[in-house]
Amino acid sequence: MILGRKFLEGYDDLKKKLLFILGAIIIYRFGSFIPLPGVNVAAVSGFLDSTGGITDFLNMFTGGSLGRMTIFTLNIFPYITSSIIISLLVVISPKLKALRKDGEAGRIKINQYTRYLTVLVCTIQAFGVAVGLENLSGEFGTAVVNAGPVFRMTTVITLLGGSILIMWIAEQMTQKGLGQGASMILTVGIISMFPSTLFKIISLLQSGQMSLFTIIALALIAIAMIAFVVFIETSQRRIPIYYPRHLNAQTAPQQNKSSYLPLKVNMSGVMGPVFASSIMMAPVAFLQMFPSESSSFRFFKELLAYASPTYILLFAFFITVFAFLYTSVISNSKDMSEQLAQSGAYIPGVRPGINTEGFLKLTSNKLTVIGSLYLVLLCISPIILSQKEGFAFVLGGTTVLILANVILDFVTQLQTYLQAYSYKNVFKQTQKKKRFVQRI
What we know:
Elements: H1 2-9, H2 12-31, H3 41-51, H4 54-61, H5 65-68, H6 77-92, H7 94-100, H8 104-134, E1 137-138, E2 141-142, H9 149-176, H10 181-192, H11 194-207, H12 212-233, E3 236-243, E4 257-264, H13 271-289, H14 295-303, H15 309-330, H16 333-342, H17 354-385, H18 397-439
Antiparallel strand pairs: 1-2, 3-4
Helix pairs in contact: 2-9, 6-7, 6-8, 6-13, 6-15, 7-8, 8-9, 9-10, 10-18, 12-18, 13-15, 15-17, 16-17
């Protein structure tokens, strides 16, 4: 009984983490139902239902906040956009490169810059939403009850406060919870749309617009996509590493110690598609929020329409670019080569120094090529194959990728925590036994 009680007490920290994540999710979902002041939600919802396309995509990632036009309409996207810009600047700017190498202090400083930029980006986007809502009118009525400077100022302040709150929640989830906070926010938004999607599928089945065979086929495709994503995300290229043996005059020579350097096939994870989606959303959302009858407007709207050839090509291009950029940020070949040299380790058949750096860079680039092709195939194929279905977005490659990565990351961190606790518990029991023996 005593051991069992102590065992349960040891997981108090884990319980706090899980309860904190649950509390943060509840706050996030509660804010997703608080509407913006002065907005005709029915008019906005009717407009979004009639347009579809990218607006359905945005609405899914915001957990329905866009369709309800709530205080969390902008969601975590300003923070993601700012992270994109800062990540690019880290690659370009020598000052930010030096900050990144400063360890924890440098990371805190870069995060501070990201927050400042988030406020600026969010203010610009919130003003665009306010102006767009004022121009939004149609068969469902006008979107704004009383347009004017007061409405714009109120909307900017409200959306800014909502996005900053989500950014703070995401950062707290990263620090005090298990997993990456921003990705978990996106995951919660996606999962929250599953019930409405299920009801939509049932209504389509009952009305005869969709057959049972089609639903089963799409379910099997979704399962296959999940299995494919899990397989690729857990795949690694293990580079063997050897440590030189140490000669000791009093003992026999020790044999070389071997280990390996794991490089994931998709090192950029979910960030490539998320960054690419954020870039593609901006011009399309702008065109839909500010409609016009000019020929140039219609040309750009058709050119960037969701699932159009131009949209697909640009989406694939940005996925590839951001996959390479993000990989270069998180996996620096020069830094890895220096760390191996400092620890006295070497790769068999490769000389230390510049040769090791070149080998790691070449291997990383090859894996990134495979990873980017996998991301493009995963994210583009559902758009092409299931564009005719109204619920294609929930079964999209980006959705499956985010869900799989977040769940895998959460499970990995949970297993790491439990393993670390078990080692700690064994160490404590060993120390107690030693003290008991010493007393005897």
